Amino acid sequence: MRLSVLDLAPVSSDRTPAEALQASTELARAAEELGYHRYWVAEHHGMPGIASSAPAVLIAHLAAATSTLRLGSGGVMLPNHAPLVIAEQFATLEALHPGRIDLGLGRAPGTDQITARALRRGADADDFPQEVAELRGYLAGTGRVKAVPANGASPEIWLLGSSGFSARLAGLLGLPFAFAHHFSGDNTLPALQLYRDSFRPSEVLTEPYAMVTAAVICADTAEEATRLAAPMRLAMLNLRRGTPGLLPTPEEALAYPYTGQENAAIDAFTWSHVVGDPDTVRDGLADLVRRTAADELMIATNVGEPKARLRSHELVASVRPE
């Protein structure tokens, strides 16, 4: 089973964005040594606790700091950008690091509507299929407008989704599909089934290839894993309130006076997360693979303590499913 990493470049309240990005660089190097297959960064805007607002820039830095690890976007939110610009950025990355670049595409803005309008006025997520086709045309060099330095060189294109829309589109286009199980667990199995049922062989794939992204926090003890998961729970509550901020420290999160209703809301959102010691995580990931028949797992570990986040990835690599 291939294991990969999704990195949100978390910025905790006791660290700076520069420190968070340095931690991501160190984690990418470690992931390469641990045998992880690919390392993706996610595009978010207007969220102080996430430093990956410019995926192409961060990918270039991480690719220069590693040598064999695949680097990519999980994803670029295409409604925020002109497809030509994304084609130019990722063709440049592919030219600099041939055979190592992935371009994961999503149709959500990755932010609030005000920020989305500031990024690209008039964009519509319903135009996603047409924009994917336009982008692929630029990379293939088939349009009237030439993307430079594309010239037919293309990164590996993925479609990302948290519902059935992109699942079906990925199947119809014969592209690999990554599903966001880490925040849309209720939709995972229906979306994967729709992807496989819709799949048409293409020049890219002869059969479906599905990756499932899981929220995982692993520590040497169950108690430590629970402590490390506390900030993510409070950050999720703040996001749902419309007040995203820096990722709390474990101490800040554990001291927060949750109401019963707040705890229930968080539990409903995080039920799919795998948190615990190595045995618990091994069993949780094996069960996820069994239920989803995933071809690849991507691990999202939203922990602000760099050493603890690295230790989690070390432990997950040691208990990877067969």
UniProtKB/TrEMBL annotation:
It comes from the Bacteria. Gene3D superfamilies: Luciferase-like domain. Transmembrane segments: none annotated. Residues 1-292 form the Luciferase-like domain. Pfam families: Bac_luciferase. To bacterial alkanal monooxygenase alpha and beta chains. NCBIfam families: oxido_grp_1. This is LLM class flavin-dependent oxidoreductase.
